[in-house]
Design goal:
20 helices; six-stranded parallel beta sheet; alpha/beta; 12% strand; 477 residues; binds uridine-5'-diphosphate-xylopyranose; 14 strands
């Protein structure tokens, strides 16, 4: 292959679209493929069908340069590509914890019989262990190119909201390959990040696919660990923020992924840990990963705890109360509401009889399609108007910047539950708010955590009470 390899990307969700646009920006000719004709048309017209900062300009630049195009045609893609990346979704199978590989299977079954010349098929979708081996065995028999068509595994670790940066400058590139030729091809595709010093770890495809799910399982475990500690804090009166700060400074532990709060959600971590546990059980290693069920349970308990905190803040009942909700996306910087803890809490509170007014900077359209029963407002102030209790459920930066004095004039009662520890507790309390956050002390007498006063370790970002009062009076917060 003397010219640069031409690339195809099957599946144009968050992962596939970011991958296609980023590789086009590095000078490759890239063809994105999706079975959804409306999606392919929108992308071809330069419109991103979801919110991802920085991706739309890259998409448009690729289209303008003539290096990026989108199609629904598998024959066109098979004809075009030397390297075929498979980035289709692998959601949770309804009624079970296992992964639904229908999209992967239909992509493979549609593509393989069309592969007539030497090429590399690269799995990027997150799949349970054993998937790469099965497809690696099938490919030479299914493709007219025979052993000229080879499978590799190259998992993706991008975070939504950071998809462009994570794709162009990942922490590491995992090349799961069975041949020197496949390794050389992946080195050529990733020549630019490799030249910039990104580590390139060569392994076999079976290990590569496991790296991805193991990394997600570890991240989920870390998050649930600190949230389990928040539960302990709630009954002892300790402060989980001070605890997380102190733990994270130990280099053996590290502070990343140790933010307590409402727990993890989104299209990856929850379903990936369930799929890994389910496959491990099928393989006879269920006991090794049985702790993942507990990780999942801790995570889901946070949502229940938040509903309880909201009820406590609303004077013991939610029925008939007005509740203002800030944030329904599963995390800031994204419009993704898949398994969103924030949206689930908002919906549960609505189901308990509260009137729920919601604002989110990006996710309201998507949330409105699933939960038309919530009242969607155009701003933070709109969601807060006449609220008996305000809930901060997704830590968008604009929520952290909200002025407690201004909001105090809008709400019916100054009660806030900060599910993500995004606010300066002292500043809000000093402005007269009943401030509550999971795992933090300061609850009224008679509720869990009542024993505690100030945190034993004051987190670095907390202002002293006097500083907060001055800033508050000056209208600076
Ligand atoms: C995640 C992985 O990070 C990524 O490598 C993988 O490929 C896909 O899943 P993403 O879902 O975009 O990416 O989000 P991430 O930023 O990792 O956060 C996941 C969830 O955990 C969010 O709901 C977030 O709010 C929560 N979280 C994260 C915490 O509650 N505490 C933390 O300390 C970190």
């Amino acid at each position: 292959m003397t010219r640069r390899p031409r690339l195809t990307v099957f599946g144009t969700g968050y992962l596939g679209t970011a991958h296609a646009a980023c590789l086009a920006s590095l000078g490759f000719e890239v063809l994105g493929v999706d079975v959804d004709a409306a999606r392919a048309r929108a992308l071809q017209a330069g419109t991103l069908p979801f919110y991802e900062p920085g991706l739309e300009p890259l998409l448009r630049a690729g289209l303008r340069a003539g290096r990026l195009a989108f199609t629904t045609s598998y024959p066109a893609a098979a004809e075009f590509g030397d390297v075929h990346f498979i980035c289709v979704g692998t959601p949770q199978r309804p009624g079970s914890g296992g992964a639904d590989l229908t999209q992967f299977e239909s992509c493979f079954a549609g593509l393989a019989p069309l592969l007539r010349r030497p090429c590399l098929v690269v799995g990027k979708s997150t799949v349970p262990p054993g998937t790469a081996a099965a497809y690696g065995q099938r490919l030479p028999g299914a493709a007219p190119a025979g052993t000229g068509a080879e499978l590799a595994w190259n998992p993706e670790f991008l975070r939504e909201g950071h998809a462009v940066a994570d794709t162009l400058r990942p922490d590491r590139i995992i090349a799961g390959v069975w041949s020197v030729r496949a390794e050389a091809t992946l080195r050529e595709v990733y020549a630019e990040p490799l030249a910039a010093g990104v580590p390139f770890l060569v392994t076999d495809p079976l290990t590569a696919e496991l790296v991805k799910v193991a990394a997600n399982a570890f991240l989920a475990t870390k998050i649930s660990f600190i949230n389990a500690m928040a539960e302990v804090c709630e009954v002892t009166g300790a402060d989980v923020l001070g605890l997380a700060d102190a733990l994270g400074r130990d280099p053996r532990i590290g502070g990343a992924g140790l933010r307590p709060g409402l727990g993890f959600g989104g299209g990856c971590l929850p379903k990936d840990i369930r799929a890994l546990a389910a496959r491990a059980a099928e393989l006879g290693a269920g006991q090794a990963l049985s702790f993942l069920h507990e990780i999942d349970a801790i995570n889901l308990r946070r949502r229940t705890r938040l509903v309880d905190l909201a009820r406590e803040a609303a004077d013991g009942r939610l029925d008939g109360r007005r509740v203002g909700v800030l944030g329904v996306a599963f995390k800031p910087g994204s419009d993704d509401i898949r398994d969103s803890p924030a949206l689930e809490v908002a919906a549960r509170i609505r189901a308990l009889g509260a009137r729920v007014a919601v604002f989110d900077p990006a996710a309201m359209d998507r949330a409105g399609q699933v939960h038309p029963d919530l009242d969607y407002r155009g701003s933070v102030l709109g969601a807060a108007r006449d609220a008996d209790v305000l809930l901060l459920l997704t830590e968008w930066p604009e929520f952290a910047a909200a002025d407690p004095m201004v909001l105090a004039k809008t709400v019916a009662r100054r009660a806030i539950v900060d599910a993500r520890h995004a606010l300066d507790a002292a500043a809000w309390r000093d402005c007269g708010w009943d401030y509550r956050a999971p795992g933090r002390p300061g609850h009224p007498p008679g509720t869990p955590g009542a024993a505690a006063g100030r945190p034993a370790i004051v987190p670095r970002h907390d202002l002293g009470p006097r500083d907060a009062e001055v800033a508050c009076l000056a209208g600076a917060i």
